[in-house]
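Why should sequence recovery work at all? Because a backbone constrains its sequence more than one might expect. Tight turns favour small or flexible residues, buried strands favour hydrophobic ones, and helices have their own preferences. The token representation captures these environments compactly. In the example below, the structure is given first.
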């Protein structure tokens, strides 16, 4: 069936993988990628599909109500997959208001535009909000986040995402807006901006710069290869139940320091450096304020209801990721010039 689908934040890391999958798999859909091209948005992420006939890129800000309402009028979007956000916890600690604006207000502007367009007939319409496991706060040594874990966000980033999730639900309850939400664990893979742990450390190992480990390095995350997240998004968008939440995770917990050791080992092998070279770059630094100890997802709902599971092991996914960064040195050079250097100096002074 012909449909107009809006994907927000499609020039970013996860968004670009979702856009590519939808453009390639659904020739009947017209995919509109709306992105403000902040520091995290990069047109190079989608150079392979930019000329596809079922694809349009629009530069714009989700917080600009007049512009967004016009865009919805123009394209009459049947579906929205909303990924645009400020996404880095450390930046949310230095500039929390930017997170409230984009993540909360921006989501509300989109919800409102969708409501105004379809409130008299929601048939076949869907608003899919992409969220994070960080809304659940932190786990202790044991346990898993399920879809019913109470929200308990600790950083300005996770608080803004939690708030946006609540607004999505509220629009569902109040106006009958048909929505789905997914809360995913840490993604890694090609095209991730080198402010996040894995690409930052890959870049620093290439450049033989210190590897800044926060605190004692014993924090735990549940890592998922980004293409597997995009596949889950496709399944949830098409087959998820209205007004439901799905947790997405890699069944793949790693303490930061163990992950870093594996990364160092794979990088030494791929760069032909003597075993143990990269490990020597590890430098323990001051901890992140409010640092969540552990995230781990119970992904049994999406596994049972939609038969989704990750397609690669962490060792395979990490190896593919490193290969991508080594083969795309121009991509990395372009984004690590200019403002990245200023950010890096401030963050890791
Ligand atoms: P990212 O920072 O790589 O990309 C965000 C994109 O949104 C960028 O292209 C940016 O230009 C765009 N954007 C930012 N502000 C905008 C605005 N005001 N208007 C329009 N576009 C704007 O982020 P990501 O890591 O790809 O995350 C995408 C989504 O997935 C976010 O909603 C994030 O909360 C969520 N998420 C991320 C992870 C992860 O591990 N990265 C895990 C779970 C959920
Ligand atoms: O869990 C999902 C979330 O994962 C997403 O919602 C966020 O958008 C995404 O940024 C990510 O958040 P984290 O804070 O977990 O990711 P980050 O890569 O920033 O950090 C991962 C772990 O590594 C965390 O324990 C902090 C630590 N770390 C990170 C950086 C950047 C370091 O020790 N040193 C660093 O320099």
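From this structural description, the recovered sequence reads:
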């Amino acid at each position: 069936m012909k449909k107009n689908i809006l994907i927000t934040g499609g020039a970013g890391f996860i968004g670009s993988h979702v856009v590519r999958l939808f453009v390639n798999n659904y020739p009947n859909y017209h995919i509109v990628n709306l992105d403000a091209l902040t520091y995290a948005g990069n047109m190079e992420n989608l150079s392979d599909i930019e000329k596809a006939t079922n694809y349009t890129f629009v530069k714009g800000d989700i917080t600009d109500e007049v512009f967004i309402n016009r865009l919805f009028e123009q394209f009459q979007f049947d579906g929205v997959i909303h990924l645009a956000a400020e996404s880095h916890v450390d930046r949310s600690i230095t500039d929390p208001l930017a997170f409230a604006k984009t993540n909360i207000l921006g989501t509300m502007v989109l919800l409102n535009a969708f409501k105004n367009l379809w409130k008299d007939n929601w048939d076949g319409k869907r608003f899919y909000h992409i969220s994070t496991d960080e809304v659940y706060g932190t786990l202790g040594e044991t346990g898993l986040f399920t879809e019913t874990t109470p929200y308990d966000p600790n950083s300005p980033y996770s608080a803004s995402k939690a708030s946006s999730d609540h607004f999505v639900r509220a629009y569902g309850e109040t106006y009958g807006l048909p929505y789905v939400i997914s809360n995913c664990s840490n993604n890694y893979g090609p095209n991730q901006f080198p402010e996040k742990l894995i690409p930052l450390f890959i870049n620093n190992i290439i450049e033989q710069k210190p590897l800044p480990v926060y605190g004692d390095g014993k924090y735990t995350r549940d890592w998922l290869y980004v293409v597997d997240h995009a596949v889950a998004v496709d399944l949830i968008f098409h087959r998820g139940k209205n007004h439901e939440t799905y947790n997405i995770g890699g069944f793949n917990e790693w303490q930061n320091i163990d992950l870093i050791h594996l990364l160092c080992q794979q990088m030494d092998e791929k760069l032909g450096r003597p075993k143990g070279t990269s490990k020597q770059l590890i430098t323990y630094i001051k901890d992140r304020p409010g640092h969540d100890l552990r995230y781990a997802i119970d992904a049994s709902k999406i596994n049972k209801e939609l038969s989704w599971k990750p397609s690669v092991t962490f060792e395979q996914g990490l190896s593919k990721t490193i290969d991508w960064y080594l083969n795309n040195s121009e991509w990395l050079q372009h984004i690590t010039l200019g403002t990245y250097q200023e950010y890096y100096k401030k963050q890791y002074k």
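A few observations help interpret the result. The mean pLDDT is 98.
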